[in-house]
Amino acid sequence: MPGVSSFRSTLSLAALGALSGLLAAFTALAVAELVAGLVRPAAGPVTVVGGTVVDRTPAEVKDFAIRTFGENDKNVLQLGILGVLALIAVGLGMLSLRHRRAGSAGVLLFGIVGAAAALSRPDSTGIGDVLPSIVGALAGSLALYVLASEATASTVAENSEGGTAGWSRRGFLTAAGVTAAAATSAGVIGRFLSGREGQGAVASRESLVLPKPSSPAPTVPAGTQLKVPGVTAFTTANRNFYRVDTALTVPKVDARTWRLRIHGRGVTRPRTYTLDQLLARPLIERDITLTCVSNEVGGPYVGNARWLGVPLADLLQEAGVRPPSKGGRADQLVARSVDGMTLGSPVEDVMDGRDAMLAVGMNGEPLPFDHGFPVRMLVPGLYGYVSACKWIDSIELTTFDSYDPYWVKRKWARKAPIKTQARIDTPKPFARPAAGTVIIAGVAWAQRRGIARVEIRIDDGPWKYADLAAQDTVDTWRQWSYRWQATPGGHSITVRATDGTGQVQTDQRTRTIPDGASGRHSVFVTVP
Predict the structure, then answer these.
(1) Whose CA is closest to 407, among 435, 429, 387?
(2) DSSP string of 130-187, one letter each residue
(3) d(CA 163, CA 166)
(4) Rounded to whole angstroms, how far apart are CA atoms 184 and 176?
(5) Pick from 325, 333, 330: which is nearest to 350 by CA?
(6) Got the DSSP string for 330-356?
(7) Do residues 323 and 348 make contact, with C-beta atoms less than 8 angstroms apart?
(8) Which residues contact residue 329 at a Cβ distance below 8 angstroms, ignoring those fewer than 6 apart?
(9) DSSP secondary structure, 350-405, as one string
(10) For residues 195 and 37, what is the distance between their CA atoms, to the nearest angstrom?
(11) CA 426, CA 17: separation in Å to the nearest integer?
(12) Burial of 225 (0-12, 13-18, 19+ CB in 10 A)
């Protein structure tokens, strides 16, 4: 039947076109990975395009992504980019069956987009960053042209009377197999080269021996950690510490070549430090609770660790910096990361006597790469987006009027002290505890002010005082518990905290944007 035969031929050709497009895209990405391994791993097209997407995404959408996907938001973004590329590749593959040059030109266009994204990145090192995208696109374009030619020849032979269909199909399959094998090899070699790029950083971390602090952390009081199942540990293990940042690829910085520059307005004695020079200085050790501004009421993006570092105020004073209250010319400290991220902190806060530091250690070991190795900044009492710069390599003194850092440009507040919050860790939402005594427990935090009181309310009843665990310092969270005589039925449990100044946590719910969420955490449980 000629009609059925024609339909099958068209369907076969479309499938071969789609496969050609996917193989061409795979080739482009694999070759780009290889070139990036030779040039600079962070210049790979998926990384630079993904970074550009992150930078241009509205703050509300970013907040939704963090709230929905948590620390997997970057993986979701990269999978989304690859999914879109796959769909476009299928379309270009089918287009190339009739217009091979147009299909190949489409692949080249994506190479140009990747190159433009590479040059626009704040950590771009110059024209060499365009090579992965351009060379990868050229390889993908050539692959698509060849595969589309073979696919067309295969279908023409299938419709001919010469009996050459089998031979032509073998020609396409051979071309496809060679393309896939070559692309896979390029990708594997590229991954190896990229991994080797970070070996120096890994070796520098493994060989780093942290000095003992000149000012050790005070002994944590007995009774700081409650013996209640389900309550968050007082000290957050490094592997469990939250990570919220924009880095699609975690920077691997070699500590031996790392440098920190202090410069800018009001700096009379600019300084550049190596890691060894910082480690040779008197170090302080402190327990400090960090909080992300993207943390919803009752959210997980808060953690407490023991940090080791250099007092930041000392470094600034040696550079001639004075706070505005003492006539200083700069009121904003802009910290820059090796990947181009910028965070702005009030100079007054950094130099007011709190334990602001350049941290080199976390819970007794060098900083993990995910958390800023070799050096990150910490300022107790401020949300991370205005204080906790990871992979820091520059500190510039300036003013709030003259410069807006990364997040401020995206509608977040310039100044963001951490708000008083309390969280219920146990029971979990929609739990079904048995009637009788139920231990309600959790944590509360109000860095720089401390927690003076935590109260619990069951349904619409009166507020009842919770029992407080021992407080370590005003810069750490505090555990609490309450013994509830649970009765059958559905119940709402709400918590509120009062900070050391007597300020009660507000019940007004606000979003995380622009300066952190507020409101009271509650959970609903059913007692059978």
Answers:
(1) 387
(2) GHHHHHHHHHHHHHHHHHHHHHHHHHHHHHSSSS-HHHHHHHHHHHHHHHHHHHHHHH
(3) 7
(4) 12
(5) 333
(6) --EEEEEETTS-EEEEEHHHHTSSS--
(7) yes
(8) 265, 266, 322, 397, 399
(9) HTSSS--EEEEEETTEEPPGGGTTT-EEE-TTB-GGGT--SSEEEEEEE-TTT---
(10) 8
(11) 56
(12) middle
Q: At 22, which helix (H) or strand (E)?
A: helix 2-39
Q: What pLDDT, on a 0 to 100 scale, did the predictor assign at position 122? A: 87
**Total length of the chain:** 528
Pairing of strands 392-398, 451-458: unpaired
pLDDT reported for residue 7:
42
Instruction: Evaluate whether 478 touches 466 at the Cβ level (below 8 Å).
Output: no
Q: What is the pLDDT of residue 76?
A: 85
Token representation of residue 56: 């241009």
* DSSP conformation letters of 97-126: HH-HHHHHHHHHHHHHHHHHHHHHSTT--S
Tokens coding 202 = 């890994």
Preceding peptide of 374 cis, ω within 30°: yes
Q: Which residue carries 């070559």 as its tokens? A: 182
The pTM of the full predicted model, rounded to 2 decimals, is 0.88
**Closest by Cα among 206, 194, 184 to 249:** 194
Q: Provide the pLDDT for residue 160.
A: 52
- Report pLDDT for 519: 98
- Residues of the chain short of pLDDT 50, as ranges, are 1-7, 161-167
- By CB atoms closer than 10 A (0-12, 13-18, 19+), residue 348 is middle
pLDDT at 163: 46
For residue 17, the surrounding DSSP H or E stretch is helix 2-39
Specify the 3-state DSSP secondary structure of 62: helix
Q: What is the pLDDT of residue 447?
A: 98
Residue with tokens 């241009």: 56
Nearest-CA neighbor of 175 among 405, 496, 167, 416? 167
Q: What's the confidence (pLDDT) of residue 11?
A: 56
Beta carbons within 10 angstroms of residue 432's beta carbon: 9
Cβ contact 303:396 at 8 Å: no
Both structure tokens of 284: 């302080």
Helices (H) and strands (E) in the chain, counts: 11, 18
Q: DSSP of 310-328, one letter per residue? A: EEHHHHHHHTT---GGGT-
Distance of CA 87 to the CA centre of its chain: 27
Q: Report, in angstroms and rounded to the nearest whole number, the Rg of the chain calculated over CA atoms.
A: 29
Angle of helix 45-56 versus helix 100-120 axis, rounded to 10: 60
